Amino acid sequence: MRFLFDNESFSFETLRAAGFANYGGSDLGEVLATAARIADGDEAAWHAEWKKTAERAEVIGERSLAEGHRVSAREALLRASNYYRTAEFFLREHPADDPEVTELSTRSRDTFVRATALFDTPVDAVEIPYEDTTLPGYLFLVDDSGAARPTVVYTSGYDSTLEESYFAVAAAALRRGYNVLAYDGPGQGAVLRRQGIVFRPDWEAVVTPVLDYALGRPEIADDRVALFGYSLGGYLVARAAAFDDRIAALILDDGIHDFHAAFAKAVPPFLGDWLHEKRDDVAVPVLTLLTGVSTQLRWALHNGVWAMGAASFGDLIRGTRDYTLSGIADRITAPTLVMDADQDHFLQGQPQLVRDALVNAPTTLVTLSDTEGAGEHCHMGAMFRAHQTMFDWLDTTLGTVRG
Length: 403
Known about the structure:
Blueprint: H1 8-19, H2 28-36, H3 43-66, H4 70-88, H5 99-116, E1 123-130, E2 133-140, E3 149-155, H6 165-175, E4 179-183, H7 189-195, H8 204-214, E5 220-230, H9 233-241, E6 249-253, H10 260-266, H11 269-276, H12 280-291, H13 295-307, H14 313-319, E7 336-341, H15 350-357, E8 363-368, H16 383-398
Helix pairs in contact: 3-4, 4-5, 6-16, 8-9, 11-12, 13-14
């Protein structure tokens, strides 16, 4: 699917921004107008134009709030948060030292927090103990009754942010009577940007304290906690589920058995051989040349070096071999929904490998197709269809179907 751009990355990220319109994260007219001002593949224009749109939406939100229009303010601030995230996306040359990355991510977070203060349902900003620090999170509650409810614990992916969780799952969950606990883990969102903590493959070390926190909240029903993994989170939560039996259900959107496969697919086979042999003296210069012609590869490599704490492109690609379910998938026993997108340009075929590996878990594989507009990675642009699939399955699995 191509959406407004021929450049694959620009098309997908625009579809991602537009697809959150279902839950107030964008307005189609704003998306179309912004995209029209950006030349295909022009990353500087992408940054500038999405920032302008974000700032315009933020001003609308501030003015509406000052005039007492709470709903209008909430809607505009939610859009601003998503647009600021989108504006920051391709700034990956030196992200750790780029003040614009800091500004845009901060503004995305701040506009979201201001929007949540205007929600009709409670949102608690939380800090989850983790090793010698804390992980930031949001607990989205169905109501303020204090009743223990089924809860989805959300883990995001390779480039997601905590604030994106509302559009990715929380809004849909709240409508169906589920609380959502979302958090930034190592390598993600504010944990990467503010604390400099990078990804780790042994995600059970992250999910264990998150579940400890969740199960200490009276609003969360101990026996009805589901893990939801978004993009790379599909690997991360599956890995964690192999080591924790407190999980009532597992949703992988989409299923990932071997994250390294995404990088192996993106480079010529001879480069894979060189990297395996650690011939970085020849492999890294070729990778650098390839980043000049592929927006997707350039972004993926630069983002990975930052988020995974790699010393080089070669170090990054070799390091992704640790992100695999090989040897541990048979430990997963929780009922599992494996989502698959038939035109996934990152991880095609991975959900089937997960399904085959989960020999001790009741597993359902659902493929959503391009013919129904749901064939992109994480079903971008088809959020209602994806959420219908996920929550219908979860309702049945947890016994929470309502008449």
